[in-house]
Every structure is written in C-alpha cells, then in structure tokens.
Amino acid sequence: MNMALNWSMENVCVLFDFWRVNSSTSLVLTCAAVFLLGYLYELARASVRGWEKSLAPSGTVVSASSSTPLVGPTATRNVIRWKRALFYGLLVAYSYSLMLIFMTYNGFLILAVIGGAVAGHYAYSSDEWGSVRGANCH
Fold this sequence. Notes:
Layout: E1 12-14, E2 16-21, H1 24-55, H2 74-102, H3 107-124
Antiparallel strand pairs: 1-2
Helix pairs in contact: 1-2, 1-3
C-alpha cells in the first residue's frame, strides 16, 4: 500500500480485498462509485437532520447546540433517543468508510470523495446560515 499521494491506476485496494483498481476502466467505475458514496452520505446526513427537526415541538428553532427536549412520554423519548443514536452510529461508520477510501492516498479517489461531498452538500444543504458544520471524516 502506497503511503504517499499517488495517481496509480494499478493494484489500488479500495476498502475490501475484492475491490481493486487494475485498469483505467476499473478506475473510472471506482471513481464514479466513490463519488456516489460521497454524494449519498450528504443525502443521509440531510435526511437524519430533517427527521430530527421534525421531532422538535412546532415553532422551536433547533440548532446543533440546542438543548430542546423531546416531547412525549418517557418511553417514546427513549425510543427516539435510541433511533437517533443508531442513525448517528451508522453515519459515523459511513463517514469512516469514506475516510478509509481517502486514506488510499490515491489522487483520483481523493478527488472523487471531495467531488461527491461537494455535489451532495450543494444538493441537500439547507439555506439556513450557520447550518454548515465540519465534515465528520471526509
């Protein structure tokens, strides 16, 4: 595994041993798949954010630092907290996977991750100022 920035098109392992780039065709297909993964990560993040906003009482402004309590009986609140925790864990695993692709140090794959994230953020970000937060791991 090359631990320096490279533009190799041969024997590049992407996440799994069976996912290898060995030709220019497989590189183009891999870059398209990685771009799509970055794009879909932004969609997933926006979807979870929208779902969380729908849980807040009407008229409440919800921000990343908001301490607005969830409404409803305790049992319902616990189920919602578990769902939020599960979605958070899935998003962390997803973002770490993108980070591992980035860590191949392959310039083509790095650009594909960044391109997918930029396109996804443009497509799914809200128009609210201050809603931009740092990327988890990509």
